[in-house]
């Protein structure tokens, strides 16, 4: 990539994340064939995506963010654009991500494939849908998305970011929430017929869904004689990692029950000692058992505090209330991973990280940091509720 004489050259660090497709040899890759007679046309916009991942929701969000940036730069309307996968679309368990792709980026109804939430065409599907015998399929408008490794979620995950904030991440979060019919966080999208970003979500239908009951969640409303039940509760969500029928899960906490008991006891003591009138909910969620990504997002949208071992579901901290807080517990295999610290810094949320082993031996430290984050979140939330 060439730079103007008055601009500094691309640094060696920068070269590490710039895709080969963006280097100066790009013009040499472009070829043209003159005098083509189009046999068939696609007369509406297409957006081409080569996905980074189809299983890990953090990496899927890298694809979502890069696509959002592409739509923004090209001024594409998701209601009139068809998303095309350049990779194969295997029939795997995480085809559930297709529902997000469809709802957020590709609502255009296509008579060839219907409007099923898990049906997104590939390039081969597009070619096969042409008129029989057609030689050249012409596209009125086609945009090819960049590799997801170029996004804010991808760069510098091995170092703590020095950036104080990211307007892009805030706008992306609001865009995703609005397209999914959930209240935005930052009011970056004007004139949307959704709840205000300053509105407080009560315990929603997501906390009572069958998926969550299957996940052994007990959203108990904690109250004391001085509790004001008319106040919306503080919701503390513990992200649990549990072995499945498919096999063991990395980064489990085998003494989780003892850890949760200690956390709940300490939080109760804080509320009692300080006569905090707000009720609170302390709930444990295994996100692997919550089958809809939209529900997973909604759970964090209504959570004030997120606690748990490092895992992909922490990407949903993007959608937490802007006064929210995160306590990340890092096993040795995930030390010096700054994914979620960077998200918290760039979006202005409270954050704390502690190294742990399995079983967790430093329960007192984890509990103390959790209570500290709860206190900070209560203060920030009170400021918002008070109109400050």
TrEMBL record:
Keyword Zinc-finger: no
Residue stretches spanning the membrane: none
Residues covered by the Glycosyltransferase 61 catalytic domain: 234-327
Keywords: Endoplasmic reticulum, Glycoprotein, Glycosyltransferase, Signal, Transferase
The enzyme's E.C. designation: 2.4.1.255
Catalytic activity field: L-threonyl-[protein] + UDP-N-acetyl-alpha-D-glucosamine = 3-O-(N-acetyl-beta-D-glucosaminyl)-L-threonyl-[protein] + UDP + H(+); L-seryl-[protein] + UDP-N-acetyl-alpha-D-glucosamine = 3-O-(N-acetyl-beta-D-glucosaminyl)-L-seryl-[protein] + UDP + H(+)
GO molecular function: protein O-acetylglucosaminyltransferase activity
Keyword Signal found: yes
Protein name listed in UniProt: EGF domain-specific O-linked N-acetylglucosamine transferase
